[in-house]
Protein backbone atom coordinates (compact mmCIF):
# COMPACT_ATOMS: atom_id res chain seq x y z
CA UNK A 1 0.00 0.00 0.00
CA UNK A 2 2.72 2.43 1.01
CA UNK A 3 4.86 1.99 -2.09
CA UNK A 4 1.82 2.48 -4.32
CA UNK A 5 1.08 5.69 -2.46
CA UNK A 6 4.63 6.91 -3.06
CA UNK A 7 4.48 6.07 -6.74
CA UNK A 8 1.30 8.05 -7.09
CA UNK A 9 2.92 11.04 -5.41
CA UNK A 10 5.12 13.77 -6.82
CA UNK A 11 8.46 12.46 -8.12
CA UNK A 12 10.26 15.69 -7.20
CA UNK A 13 9.32 15.19 -3.55
CA UNK A 14 10.91 11.74 -3.35
CA UNK A 15 14.41 13.08 -2.78
CA UNK A 16 13.22 14.84 0.39
CA UNK A 17 11.74 11.68 1.89
CA UNK A 18 13.81 9.61 4.32
CA UNK A 19 14.73 6.05 3.40
CA UNK A 20 11.73 3.71 3.65
CA UNK A 21 13.33 1.54 6.31
CA UNK A 22 13.65 4.53 8.70
CA UNK A 23 10.18 5.88 8.09
CA UNK A 24 7.46 5.37 10.65
CA UNK A 25 4.26 4.98 8.70
CA UNK A 26 0.93 5.28 10.47
CA UNK A 27 -2.06 3.73 8.74
CA UNK A 28 -5.78 3.58 9.49
CA UNK A 29 -8.75 1.81 7.96
CA UNK A 30 -12.43 1.50 8.78
CA UNK A 31 -15.35 -0.64 7.70
CA UNK A 32 -18.90 -1.46 8.66
CA UNK A 33 -20.76 -4.72 8.14
CA UNK A 34 -24.54 -5.05 8.35
CA UNK A 35 -25.65 -7.28 11.25
CA UNK A 36 -29.41 -6.63 11.03
CA UNK A 37 -31.31 -9.82 11.98
CA UNK A 38 -34.40 -11.29 10.40
CA UNK A 39 -37.76 -10.74 12.10
CA UNK A 40 -39.07 -13.09 14.78
CA UNK A 41 -35.99 -13.11 17.03
CA UNK A 42 -36.05 -12.15 20.71
CA UNK A 43 -34.83 -8.64 21.46
CA UNK A 44 -32.90 -8.14 24.70
CA UNK A 45 -33.19 -5.15 26.98
CA UNK A 46 -36.50 -5.72 28.74
CA UNK A 47 -37.77 -8.03 31.49
CA UNK A 48 -40.45 -9.41 29.18
CA UNK A 49 -39.49 -11.05 25.90
CA UNK A 50 -40.08 -8.85 22.86
CA UNK A 51 -40.12 -10.46 19.41
CA UNK A 52 -38.73 -8.33 16.58
CA UNK A 53 -41.60 -7.32 14.29
CA UNK A 54 -40.06 -4.58 12.11
CA UNK A 55 -36.76 -2.94 11.17
CA UNK A 56 -36.59 0.79 11.85
CA UNK A 57 -32.91 1.13 11.01
CA UNK A 58 -30.10 -1.29 10.21
CA UNK A 59 -27.63 -2.66 12.76
CA UNK A 60 -23.91 -2.67 12.06
CA UNK A 61 -20.57 -3.93 13.32
CA UNK A 62 -18.31 -0.89 12.85
CA UNK A 63 -14.56 -1.28 12.95
CA UNK A 64 -11.60 1.07 13.21
CA UNK A 65 -8.20 -0.51 12.56
CA UNK A 66 -4.88 1.20 13.28
CA UNK A 67 -1.35 0.17 12.28
CA UNK A 68 1.84 2.07 13.19
CA UNK A 69 4.23 -0.39 11.55
CA UNK A 70 4.96 -2.01 14.92
CA UNK A 71 1.50 -2.78 16.31
CA UNK A 72 -1.96 -3.23 14.85
CA UNK A 73 -5.17 -2.62 16.83
CA UNK A 74 -8.83 -3.09 15.96
CA UNK A 75 -11.85 -1.67 17.78
CA UNK A 76 -15.27 -3.02 16.82
CA UNK A 77 -18.59 -1.63 18.04
CA UNK A 78 -21.64 -3.80 17.47
CA UNK A 79 -25.21 -2.53 17.56
CA UNK A 80 -26.49 -4.81 20.29
CA UNK A 81 -27.54 -4.63 23.95
CA UNK A 82 -24.94 -7.06 25.29
CA UNK A 83 -22.84 -9.77 23.65
CA UNK A 84 -21.33 -12.75 25.52
CA UNK A 85 -17.63 -13.55 25.62
CA UNK A 86 -18.17 -16.71 23.53
CA UNK A 87 -19.41 -14.70 20.50
CA UNK A 88 -16.63 -12.10 20.71
CA UNK A 89 -14.08 -14.85 21.42
CA UNK A 90 -15.02 -16.85 18.32
CA UNK A 91 -14.86 -13.70 16.17
CA UNK A 92 -11.39 -12.93 17.56
CA UNK A 93 -10.18 -16.46 16.77
CA UNK A 94 -11.40 -16.09 13.17
CA UNK A 95 -9.53 -12.80 12.76
CA UNK A 96 -6.38 -14.20 14.37
CA UNK A 97 -6.42 -17.08 11.90
CA UNK A 98 -7.29 -14.96 8.86
CA UNK A 99 -5.34 -11.74 9.52
CA UNK A 100 -2.77 -12.76 12.17
CA UNK A 101 -4.00 -10.08 14.57
CA UNK A 102 -3.21 -11.00 18.21
CA UNK A 103 -6.30 -11.75 20.31
CA UNK A 104 -5.57 -9.06 22.90
CA UNK A 105 -5.20 -6.39 20.18
CA UNK A 106 -8.92 -6.56 19.38
CA UNK A 107 -11.46 -4.66 21.46
CA UNK A 108 -15.05 -5.65 20.75
CA UNK A 109 -18.03 -4.05 22.45
CA UNK A 110 -21.79 -3.79 22.23
CA UNK A 111 -23.18 -0.26 21.84
CA UNK A 112 -26.08 -1.04 24.20
CA UNK A 113 -29.08 -0.43 21.98
CA UNK A 114 -32.04 -2.08 23.73
CA UNK A 115 -33.57 -2.86 20.32
CA UNK A 116 -31.22 -5.52 18.99
CA UNK A 117 -31.41 -9.32 18.88
CA UNK A 118 -30.72 -11.26 22.07
CA UNK A 119 -27.31 -12.97 21.97
CA UNK A 120 -27.11 -14.16 25.59
CA UNK A 121 -29.89 -15.35 27.93
CA UNK A 122 -31.17 -12.37 29.90
CA UNK A 123 -34.44 -12.18 31.84
CA UNK A 124 -37.02 -13.87 29.57
CA UNK A 125 -35.17 -13.44 26.25
CA UNK A 126 -33.08 -16.20 24.72
CA UNK A 127 -30.42 -16.13 21.99
CA UNK A 128 -30.80 -17.61 18.52
CA UNK A 129 -27.86 -19.89 17.66
CA UNK A 130 -28.06 -19.11 13.92
CA UNK A 131 -27.93 -15.37 14.53
CA UNK A 132 -24.99 -15.72 16.94
CA UNK A 133 -23.07 -17.75 14.32
CA UNK A 134 -23.85 -15.06 11.71
CA UNK A 135 -22.78 -12.31 14.14
CA UNK A 136 -19.43 -14.03 14.83
CA UNK A 137 -18.64 -13.97 11.11
CA UNK A 138 -19.80 -10.42 10.53
CA UNK A 139 -17.83 -9.03 13.51
CA UNK A 140 -14.74 -10.79 12.14
CA UNK A 141 -15.53 -9.50 8.62
CA UNK A 142 -15.66 -5.91 9.88
CA UNK A 143 -12.07 -6.23 11.14
CA UNK A 144 -10.80 -7.98 8.01
CA UNK A 145 -12.40 -5.28 5.81
CA UNK A 146 -10.98 -2.46 7.97
CA UNK A 147 -7.51 -4.05 7.79
CA UNK A 148 -7.86 -4.29 4.01
CA UNK A 149 -8.77 -0.58 3.96
CA UNK A 150 -5.61 0.47 5.86
CA UNK A 151 -3.96 3.47 4.22
CA UNK A 152 -1.44 6.12 5.36
CA UNK A 153 -3.23 8.38 7.83
CA UNK A 154 -3.06 11.06 10.50
CA UNK A 155 -4.65 10.65 13.90
CA UNK A 156 -6.03 13.11 16.44
CA UNK A 157 -8.03 13.15 19.65
CA UNK A 158 -9.84 15.62 21.85
CA UNK A 159 -12.93 15.86 24.03
CA UNK A 160 -16.10 17.83 24.37
CA UNK A 161 -18.95 17.61 26.83
CA UNK A 162 -22.71 17.06 26.65
CA UNK A 163 -23.82 17.56 30.27
CA UNK A 164 -27.53 18.15 29.58
CA UNK A 165 -28.35 14.64 28.28
CA UNK A 166 -27.03 12.49 31.14
CA UNK A 167 -28.95 11.89 34.39
CA UNK A 168 -28.18 9.47 37.18
CA UNK A 169 -31.24 7.22 37.25
CA UNK A 170 -30.76 5.94 40.82
CA UNK A 171 -32.33 8.14 43.47
CA UNK A 172 -32.28 8.27 47.22
CA UNK A 173 -35.90 8.52 48.28
CA UNK A 174 -37.80 9.69 51.35
CA UNK A 175 -38.16 6.91 53.97
CA UNK A 176 -41.12 4.63 53.39
CA UNK A 177 -41.47 5.47 49.67
CA UNK A 178 -39.61 2.44 48.28
CA UNK A 179 -41.48 -0.83 47.67
CA UNK A 180 -39.97 -4.14 48.88
CA UNK A 181 -37.40 -5.67 46.51
CA UNK A 182 -38.38 -8.77 44.41
CA UNK A 183 -37.05 -11.08 47.16
CA UNK A 184 -39.29 -9.49 49.83
CA UNK A 185 -36.47 -7.42 51.38
CA UNK A 186 -37.06 -3.88 52.61
CA UNK A 187 -33.48 -2.60 52.84
CA UNK A 188 -33.27 -0.63 49.55
CA UNK A 189 -32.63 3.07 50.10
CA UNK A 190 -32.20 3.78 46.38
CA UNK A 191 -34.79 3.51 43.62
CA UNK A 192 -34.01 3.16 39.91
CA UNK A 193 -36.20 5.26 37.58
CA UNK A 194 -38.40 6.85 40.28
CA UNK A 195 -41.58 8.68 39.23
CA UNK A 196 -40.63 11.99 37.60
CA UNK A 197 -40.98 15.14 39.73
CA UNK A 198 -42.07 12.99 42.68
CA UNK A 199 -42.23 14.68 46.09
CA UNK A 200 -40.35 11.63 47.45
CA UNK A 201 -37.13 12.36 45.51
CA UNK A 202 -34.20 13.29 47.76
CA UNK A 203 -31.09 13.27 45.55
CA UNK A 204 -29.36 11.20 42.87
CA UNK A 205 -27.35 8.32 44.38
CA UNK A 206 -24.39 8.87 42.05
CA UNK A 207 -22.73 11.15 39.49
CA UNK A 208 -22.73 11.21 35.69
CA UNK A 209 -19.81 11.55 33.28
CA UNK A 210 -20.74 14.15 30.64
CA UNK A 211 -17.45 13.96 28.72
CA UNK A 212 -17.47 13.21 24.97
CA UNK A 213 -14.00 12.02 23.91
CA UNK A 214 -13.45 12.01 20.14
CA UNK A 215 -10.75 10.15 18.22
CA UNK A 216 -10.41 10.81 14.48
CA UNK A 217 -8.31 9.51 11.59
CA UNK A 218 -7.86 11.18 8.23
CA UNK A 219 -6.12 10.14 5.03
CA UNK A 220 -3.04 12.22 4.20
CA UNK A 221 -5.12 14.40 1.85
CA UNK A 222 -7.55 15.21 4.68
CA UNK A 223 -10.32 12.79 3.66
CA UNK A 224 -12.00 11.51 6.85
CA UNK A 225 -11.57 7.77 7.48
CA UNK A 226 -13.26 7.36 10.86
CA UNK A 227 -14.46 9.13 13.99
CA UNK A 228 -14.77 7.18 17.24
CA UNK A 229 -16.66 9.01 19.99
CA UNK A 230 -17.63 7.88 23.48
CA UNK A 231 -20.50 8.96 25.73
CA UNK A 232 -21.67 7.69 29.13
CA UNK A 233 -25.36 7.39 28.39
CA UNK A 234 -27.56 4.28 28.35
CA UNK A 235 -29.87 3.79 25.33
CA UNK A 236 -32.59 6.41 24.73
CA UNK A 237 -35.33 4.24 23.26
CA UNK A 238 -36.99 2.80 20.18
CA UNK A 239 -40.57 1.93 19.37
CA UNK A 240 -42.21 -1.29 20.61
CA UNK A 241 -40.49 -4.33 19.15
CA UNK A 242 -38.74 -2.66 16.23
CA UNK A 243 -35.09 -3.33 15.47
CA UNK A 244 -33.02 -0.16 15.84
CA UNK A 245 -29.46 0.90 16.63
CA UNK A 246 -30.93 3.65 18.88
CA UNK A 247 -29.04 6.95 19.21
CA UNK A 248 -25.73 5.19 18.56
CA UNK A 249 -26.82 4.46 14.96
CA UNK A 250 -28.39 7.88 14.44
CA UNK A 251 -25.21 9.58 15.68
CA UNK A 252 -23.15 7.57 13.18
CA UNK A 253 -25.59 8.28 10.32
CA UNK A 254 -25.51 12.04 11.01
CA UNK A 255 -21.71 12.21 11.14
CA UNK A 256 -21.35 10.03 8.06
CA UNK A 257 -23.77 12.26 6.14
CA UNK A 258 -22.00 15.45 7.21
CA UNK A 259 -18.35 14.36 6.93
CA UNK A 260 -18.33 11.48 4.48
CA UNK A 261 -17.98 11.56 0.73
CA UNK A 262 -20.85 9.96 -1.17
CA UNK A 263 -19.91 6.53 -2.54
CA UNK A 264 -16.36 6.88 -1.21
CA UNK A 265 -14.32 3.69 -1.25
CA UNK A 266 -13.07 3.03 1.34
CA UNK A 267 -16.00 4.54 3.23
CA UNK A 268 -15.98 6.98 6.13
CA UNK A 269 -17.21 5.25 9.31
CA UNK A 270 -18.47 7.03 12.42
CA UNK A 271 -18.95 5.11 15.66
CA UNK A 272 -20.21 5.93 19.15
CA UNK A 273 -19.05 3.70 21.99
CA UNK A 274 -20.87 3.41 25.30
CA UNK A 275 -19.03 4.91 28.28
CA UNK A 276 -19.72 4.00 31.90
CA UNK A 277 -23.49 4.36 31.98
CA UNK A 278 -24.86 1.49 34.08
CA UNK A 279 -26.64 4.03 36.31
CA UNK A 280 -27.13 6.84 33.79
CA UNK A 281 -30.04 7.47 31.44
CA UNK A 282 -31.68 10.30 29.51
CA UNK A 283 -34.56 11.08 31.90
CA UNK A 284 -34.56 14.32 33.87
CA UNK A 285 -36.28 13.06 37.02
CA UNK A 286 -36.65 16.54 38.52
CA UNK A 287 -39.11 17.56 35.82
CA UNK A 288 -42.39 16.23 34.48
CA UNK A 289 -41.82 15.00 30.93
CA UNK A 290 -43.72 16.06 27.82
CA UNK A 291 -45.17 13.38 25.52
CA UNK A 292 -42.93 12.64 22.52
CA UNK A 293 -43.38 10.79 19.24
CA UNK A 294 -41.45 7.59 18.43
CA UNK A 295 -37.70 8.23 18.10
CA UNK A 296 -38.14 11.98 18.68
CA UNK A 297 -35.95 12.04 21.80
CA UNK A 298 -33.58 9.43 20.34
CA UNK A 299 -32.97 11.65 17.30
CA UNK A 300 -32.60 14.73 19.47
CA UNK A 301 -29.93 13.13 21.68
CA UNK A 302 -28.09 11.74 18.64
CA UNK A 303 -28.07 15.21 17.10
CA UNK A 304 -26.85 16.91 20.30
CA UNK A 305 -23.99 14.42 20.64
CA UNK A 306 -23.15 14.60 16.91
CA UNK A 307 -23.05 18.43 17.00
CA UNK A 308 -20.61 18.38 19.91
CA UNK A 309 -18.47 15.68 18.28
CA UNK A 310 -18.32 17.81 15.11
CA UNK A 311 -17.32 20.90 17.10
CA UNK A 312 -14.44 18.94 18.66
CA UNK A 313 -13.58 17.39 15.28
CA UNK A 314 -13.08 20.80 13.62
CA UNK A 315 -10.49 21.79 16.25
CA UNK A 316 -8.37 18.63 16.26
CA UNK A 317 -4.62 18.69 15.67
CA UNK A 318 -3.30 15.65 13.86
CA UNK A 319 -0.24 13.49 14.58
CA UNK A 320 1.74 11.74 11.83
CA UNK A 321 2.60 8.75 13.96
CA UNK A 322 1.70 7.57 17.49
CA UNK A 323 2.50 4.69 19.81
CA UNK A 324 -0.01 1.82 19.89
CA UNK A 325 -0.28 -0.85 22.56
CA UNK A 326 -2.63 -3.42 24.07
CA UNK A 327 -2.78 -5.44 27.27
CA UNK A 328 -5.48 -7.53 28.84
CA UNK A 329 -5.96 -9.54 31.98
CA UNK A 330 -8.30 -12.39 32.81
CA UNK A 331 -9.81 -11.99 36.27
CA UNK A 332 -11.65 -14.60 38.28
CA UNK A 333 -14.34 -12.91 40.34
CA UNK A 334 -16.82 -14.20 42.87
CA UNK A 335 -20.50 -14.81 42.05
CA UNK A 336 -23.22 -13.79 44.53
CA UNK A 337 -24.81 -17.25 44.56
CA UNK A 338 -28.21 -17.69 46.19
CA UNK A 339 -28.38 -19.79 49.38
CA UNK A 340 -30.19 -23.16 49.46
CA UNK A 341 -33.05 -21.49 51.34
CA UNK A 342 -33.32 -18.74 48.69
CA UNK A 343 -33.39 -21.34 45.89
CA UNK A 344 -36.11 -23.29 47.74
CA UNK A 345 -38.26 -20.16 48.06
CA UNK A 346 -37.64 -19.28 44.39
CA UNK A 347 -38.81 -22.74 43.30
CA UNK A 348 -42.00 -22.32 45.36
CA UNK A 349 -42.71 -18.95 43.71
CA UNK A 350 -42.14 -20.43 40.23
CA UNK A 351 -44.41 -23.40 41.03
CA UNK A 352 -47.22 -21.01 42.00
CA UNK A 353 -46.82 -18.87 38.86
CA UNK A 354 -49.21 -19.50 35.96
CA UNK A 355 -46.31 -19.63 33.45
CA UNK A 356 -44.58 -20.31 31.21
CA UNK A 357 -44.15 -16.50 31.08
CA UNK A 358 -43.24 -14.96 34.45
CA UNK A 359 -45.42 -11.92 34.98
CA UNK A 360 -44.72 -10.32 38.36
CA UNK A 361 -41.34 -8.99 39.36
CA UNK A 362 -41.21 -11.58 42.17
CA UNK A 363 -41.75 -14.39 39.64
CA UNK A 364 -39.15 -12.98 37.23
CA UNK A 365 -36.49 -12.75 39.96
CA UNK A 366 -37.43 -16.17 41.36
CA UNK A 367 -36.66 -17.61 37.92
CA UNK A 368 -33.36 -15.68 37.85
CA UNK A 369 -32.48 -17.03 41.31
CA UNK A 370 -33.06 -20.57 40.08
CA UNK A 371 -30.97 -20.00 36.90
CA UNK A 372 -28.16 -18.35 38.89
CA UNK A 373 -28.01 -21.29 41.30
CA UNK A 374 -26.46 -23.23 38.39
CA UNK A 375 -23.61 -20.69 38.06
CA UNK A 376 -20.09 -21.60 39.27
CA UNK A 377 -18.87 -19.79 42.43
CA UNK A 378 -16.37 -17.80 40.36
CA UNK A 379 -16.56 -16.34 36.85
CA UNK A 380 -13.66 -15.57 34.55
CA UNK A 381 -13.80 -12.30 32.63
CA UNK A 382 -11.54 -9.97 30.67
CA UNK A 383 -10.44 -6.42 31.35
CA UNK A 384 -8.48 -4.79 28.54
CA UNK A 385 -6.46 -1.62 28.04
CA UNK A 386 -5.40 -0.06 24.75
CA UNK A 387 -2.94 2.72 24.14
CA UNK A 388 -3.38 5.07 21.17
CA UNK A 389 -0.83 7.86 21.51
CA UNK A 390 -1.73 9.80 24.66
CA UNK A 391 -5.11 8.09 24.91
CA UNK A 392 -5.76 5.14 27.20
CA UNK A 393 -8.86 3.04 26.54
CA UNK A 394 -10.25 0.93 29.40
CA UNK A 395 -12.65 -1.86 28.41
CA UNK A 396 -14.90 -3.74 30.85
CA UNK A 397 -17.49 -6.47 30.18
CA UNK A 398 -20.22 -4.94 32.37
CA UNK A 399 -22.79 -2.16 32.63
CA UNK A 400 -20.44 -0.02 34.65
CA UNK A 401 -21.46 2.67 37.12
CA UNK A 402 -20.31 6.19 36.21
CA UNK A 403 -18.24 6.48 39.41
CA UNK A 404 -15.82 3.85 38.06
CA UNK A 405 -15.40 5.70 34.76
CA UNK A 406 -14.64 8.94 36.58
CA UNK A 407 -12.14 7.17 38.85
CA UNK A 408 -10.37 5.60 35.86
CA UNK A 409 -10.12 9.01 34.17
CA UNK A 410 -8.83 10.66 37.33
CA UNK A 411 -6.15 8.05 38.13
CA UNK A 412 -5.20 7.08 34.55
CA UNK A 413 -1.54 7.14 33.47
CA UNK A 414 -2.72 8.82 30.24
CA UNK A 415 -3.70 12.48 29.71
CA UNK A 416 -6.90 11.32 27.98
CA UNK A 417 -8.91 8.27 28.95
CA UNK A 418 -11.84 6.59 27.23
CA UNK A 419 -13.92 3.96 29.02
CA UNK A 420 -15.83 1.42 26.95
CA UNK A 421 -18.35 -0.80 28.72
CA UNK A 422 -19.97 -4.06 27.60
CA UNK A 423 -16.66 -4.94 25.96
CA UNK A 424 -15.30 -8.44 25.28
CA UNK A 425 -18.22 -10.12 27.05
CA UNK A 426 -21.17 -9.58 29.35
CA UNK A 427 -21.11 -9.95 33.15
CA UNK A 428 -24.02 -7.81 34.31
CA UNK A 429 -24.17 -4.52 36.17
CA UNK A 430 -21.10 -3.22 37.97
CA UNK A 431 -22.15 -1.08 40.97
CA UNK A 432 -19.66 0.11 43.58
CA UNK A 433 -19.60 -1.66 46.97
CA UNK A 434 -21.43 1.34 48.47
CA UNK A 435 -24.13 1.20 45.77
CA UNK A 436 -24.57 -2.52 46.52
CA UNK A 437 -25.34 -1.55 50.12
CA UNK A 438 -27.89 1.02 48.99
CA UNK A 439 -29.64 -1.61 46.85
CA UNK A 440 -32.04 -1.01 43.97
CA UNK A 441 -32.58 -2.69 40.59
CA UNK A 442 -28.96 -2.77 39.41
CA UNK A 443 -27.94 -4.67 42.57
CA UNK A 444 -30.80 -7.19 42.60
CA UNK A 445 -29.27 -10.62 42.09
CA UNK A 446 -30.01 -11.93 38.60
CA UNK A 447 -28.08 -12.82 35.46
CA UNK A 448 -28.04 -9.03 34.97
CA UNK A 449 -26.23 -8.49 38.32
CA UNK A 450 -24.29 -11.27 39.99
CA UNK A 451 -20.64 -10.34 40.55
CA UNK A 452 -19.26 -9.86 44.07
CA UNK A 453 -19.62 -6.29 45.47
CA UNK A 454 -15.85 -5.69 45.17
CA UNK A 455 -15.76 -6.72 41.48
CA UNK A 456 -15.68 -3.21 40.05
CA UNK A 457 -12.98 -2.05 42.45
CA UNK A 458 -10.83 -5.05 41.48
CA UNK A 459 -11.35 -4.35 37.76
CA UNK A 460 -10.51 -0.65 38.08
CA UNK A 461 -7.24 -1.28 39.95
CA UNK A 462 -6.22 -3.91 37.37
CA UNK A 463 -7.01 -1.53 34.51
CA UNK A 464 -4.93 1.22 36.14
CA UNK A 465 -2.03 -1.28 36.35
CA UNK A 466 -2.45 -2.15 32.65
CA UNK A 467 -2.43 1.59 31.79
CA UNK A 468 0.82 2.02 33.74
CA UNK A 469 2.34 -0.91 31.83
CA UNK A 470 1.37 0.55 28.47
CA UNK A 471 2.60 4.06 29.25
ZN1 LIG B 1 -29.27 -1.32 29.60
Helical coverage, percent range: 25-40%
**Mean pLDDT rating:** 95
Uncertain regions spanning at least 5 consecutive residues: 1-21
Unique bound compounds: zinc ion
Q: In DSSP terms, counting alpha (H) and pi (I) runs of 4 or more, how many helices? A: 10
β-strand amount:
25-35%
Number of strands: 24
In spatial order, strands of the major sheet run 7-6-5-1-9-14-15-17
Assembly type of the chains comes to single chain
> What structural category characterises the helix and strand content?
alpha+beta
| Count of domain modules | 2
Write down the Rg. 23 Å
Word description of this protein:
There is one protein chain. This protein is an alpha+beta fold and 471 residues long. The protein has two domains: 25-167 and 205-333 and 376-470, no CATH class; 338-372, no CATH class. It is built from ten helices and 24 strands. It has helices spanning 2-8, 85-99, 129-148, 246-259, 296-314, 340-352, 361-372, 402-411, 433-438, 455-470; strands at residues 27-34, 42-44, 50-51, 54-55, 60-67, 72-78, 106-110, 116-117, 151-161, 167-168, 170-173, 190-192, 201-204, 211-219, 224-231, 242-243, 269-274, 280-281, 324-334, 378-388, 391-395, 399-400, 416-420, 429-430. The chain has an eight-stranded mixed beta sheet. A four-stranded mixed beta sheet has the order 19-20-21-23, covered by helices on one side. Helix 2 runs parallel beside helix 3 (129-148), helix 4 packs across helix 5 (296-314) and helix 8 (402-411) packs parallel to helix 10. The radius of gyration is 23 Å and the shape is globular. The structure holds zinc ion. Zinc ion binds next to loops. Zinc ion is lined by residues 112, 114, 234, 399.
Amino acid sequence: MFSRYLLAGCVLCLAALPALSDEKVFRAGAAKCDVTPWLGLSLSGHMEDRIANDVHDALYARCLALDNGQERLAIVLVDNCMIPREVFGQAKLLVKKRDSLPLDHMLMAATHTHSGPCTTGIFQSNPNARYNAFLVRRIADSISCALRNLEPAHIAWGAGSVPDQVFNRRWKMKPGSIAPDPFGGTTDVVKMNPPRASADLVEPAGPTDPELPVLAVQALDGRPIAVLANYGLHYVGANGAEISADYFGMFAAELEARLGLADARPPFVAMLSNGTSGDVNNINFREVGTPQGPYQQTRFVAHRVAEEALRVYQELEYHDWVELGAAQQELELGVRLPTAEEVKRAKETIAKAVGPVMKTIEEIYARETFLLSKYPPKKKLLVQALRIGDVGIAAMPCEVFAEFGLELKQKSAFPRTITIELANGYNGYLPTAQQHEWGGYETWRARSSYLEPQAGHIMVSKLLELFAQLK
